[in-house]
Amino acid sequence: MRLGIDVGGTNTDIAIIDGDRIMGAHKTATQENPGAGVKAVIENALSQTEISRDDIDAVVIGTTHFTNAFVERKKLAPSAILRLCLPSNQDLKPMLDWPSELKQALGEHIYLAHGGYEIDGREAAPMDEIQIRKIARDMRKKGVRNVAVSSIFSTIKDDMEIAARDLIIEEIPGASVSLSSRLGGLGLIDRENAALINASLRDIGQILANTIIVALRELRISAPFYFSQNDGALMSVKYAVRHPALTFSSGAANSIRGAARLADFDNAIVVDIGGTTTDVGVLKDGFPRELSLPGELGGVRTNLRMPDLYSIGLGGGSIVQLSETVKVGPQSVGHQLEKKALVFGGDVITATDIAVAAGRAKVGDPSLVANLPAKDVAKADQLIQQMIADAIDRVRTSSELLPVIFAGGGRILAAQKMRGVGEVFVPDYADVANAVGAAFAQVSGAAERIYDYNRIARDDAIIDVKSKARDEAAQAGADPSTIRDVEVEETALPYATGRMMRVRAKVLGELLINGHA
């Protein structure tokens, strides 16, 4: 039996599953302390069921905690970046286009050293061990213990990054080192940014993990827990603490996979309407379609693996202004919806109030919105439907009308029939689809490398990249005997010498729990 938990900005959801069956679900308001929130939602769920704590095999948690910390610049650790690039690549230095407040938060500890490779795998310059040790001692002197290491074309060969990491740890015992080759894809700057973001969050990751461990211990739950990552799969706590940046957009990915599971679709458009925002993504072969171009987080470009989402400021808590020009969002009452919305006795007109007044939902006390002008309610409701339809249109890449699955607690805002979209589905437990996705999650692994097909046979290259993806999945917690290939993608690099190909592989496996999948 598994508990799937999603800690969102407005609500914390839980789904209890046993095999393929959903045994129950629960929703509570999110608390400031994520550990306390997890404890509260588990207590509430267990009190409403007859499930024994001893029957729980795993707890899977999806959270926006790391995303919010970086975007809001909260409790980020001072972090250094070491780039292995000299004597070249000196003009565009690390953190060049970062927001000034982020640079200040991390400290602008920037170091360049000799090393790196060419695109065909030839050594561009040898790494200088003495130079790396000197840099590490300077970091230690400044009190910096969180370090990101990047190297030119480390996605082809990562041995210099690994060697540099080992030297840094020798000079700074207990240092936390993030390698760009483990996080990002092609593109030095974007991959470097991903590693530096990850380094700044690793202390927060350890604190969060400890908080949840304490909460589960207080609940007398001995089952292991795992974190969701941004492809809708999961990873072990140890792996997540080392790679907290992989949790970015995990809530939306969980919702997409959970909605797919509930509606039994492999290809669809999923509209996840929460309390504050609406995320629209595409389900492709059972997984969220990934972003093909570098994305941006908190003003920083990265090439982290993330779902391709279009987000708008519309949710159940969105504040509605009824005047000559009707406006919905992006401001929201958030987790205070049940205190501030009119239908709950509050004094703020929200999108939930409009849904109730328009007859789309039965929430709270409908009599409290009976006096809203019918003409204004109709305008606001029409605007909400148009916002949702426009968002769906933004993620479509063809004229094919895919089925649309609505999920999230704010799904009550949407009409059952919409012009210009495919058939609409609202499955059971859709309001906790994110928690369902977490509960049913498997373990994934992905790898991306560049190969010269003049130097290595195509079949050998594909075997090599699959092997690296399988190693990633095993490290994240998959049972090696269950890992299967999901996707292999080849892209030619036409302006490079030789027959250079970018090869990417993705695998999936079952979670290994107590020696069993």
Percent of residues in helical segments?
25-40%
How can the largest sheet be summarized?
6 strands, mixed
In whole angstroms, the N-to-C terminal distance is: 12 Å
Read across the widest sheet, the strand sequence of neighbours is: 3-2-1-4-9-10
Class per helix and strand makeup: alpha/beta
Structure notes:
The chain is an alpha/beta fold. It has 13 helices and 23 strands. It has helices at 34-47, 65-71, 100-106, 129-141, 159-171, 188-218, 237-242, 250-263, 337-340, 351-357, 374-395, 433-439, 458-476, and strands at residues 2-7, 11-18, 21-29, 58-63, 79-86, 109-114, 146-151, 176-179, 225-228, 234-236, 268-273, 278-284, 287-288, 295-297, 300-302, 309-312, 318-321, 327-332, 404-407, 424-425, 443-452, 484-492, 500-509. It has a six-stranded mixed sheet, with helices on both faces. Strands 11, 12, 13, 16, 19 and 20 form a six-stranded mixed sheet that branches. A hairpin with a 5-residue loop joins strand 17 and strand 18 (327-332). Helix 4 crosses helix 5 (159-171) and helix 10 (351-357) packs across helix 11. The longest helix is centred in the middle third of the chain and has 31 residues, at 188-218. The chain is globular, with a radius of gyration of 24 Å. The two termini are 12 Å apart.
